[in-house]
Amino acid sequence: MKNQSRVVPADNEAIFFVNVEFADKEGDLSGIRDSSIYFQAFLLNVRSVIGGPNYPPAYASLPEFPDKRKGEIELRLDRFAYYKQIQSNQGGNDANDTLVVKIAIKDKAGNVSDTLTSDPIVLLGQ
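^ that's the sequence the OP posted. Answer follows.
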């Protein structure tokens, strides 16, 4: 991980990010068809939330860019898609969500990176 959001405001239009550095010996990471990024968020909260604590895995194609052996990829996520309300807030409960994001990248040749895990990211509640 190179950089990431740490605290995300309680604004449904807010975006949070995770920025990773890559090194690819063949320089074949770019490509709409063959290379991709996998990511999945994992909620660290212990309170009961609407929709349960799990997030589905997500996959996206990497955009076309000049072949290069080193670089950065920034994953930008919408807060509204990841913030979960408390199941039954009786007051006094922490309304913040804390999660980590796991990321893996596949290049054109089908080589898959190690899975990276972000530091905790706090989505502030209302």
